[in-house]
Amino acid sequence: MNSIPIKNQFIYLGVAFFILLSIMPWITNKELSFKIIHFYSMYFGVVNTFIGGSFWWNSGLKDSNYNHLIAITASLIACSAIFISLSSVTLSILVNLMLLNLLLLYENNFLRDKVKFLEYIDTRKMATYLVTLTAILQIAFLFNPYLINFS
Prior knowledge:
- By secondary structure, this protein is mainly α.
- Helices cover 77% and strands 0% of the residues.
């Protein structure tokens, strides 16, 4: 059974939710916007935890201990980013953003010579680029000079 199309559909669904969460702060009131951005940063951490944990499927391949170490480390960094979001949402988004791009780089290096994963790699690249844009939108909202209260 080829599970790549199913994985791609779930990736598109996840990216659609990221896009929705990045648009909502710009069209809602200020208090709700900051709650949405906080939820976005926590959701980003959960997604990165899941992506990092998905490297466990490599257990039957060579260097499986290395893959497990990468999976555990990435998941711990993403979980710590969730806790960082309690004090600094911007830092949490930046940590998650760097982790997402590093996970893509690791996946590309690991799967680049496997032909059956080419469609998945293309979808994953597109998803990473779109989520990077949504993260930039969230950070732009946080540093929007028209929202800063000068009183």
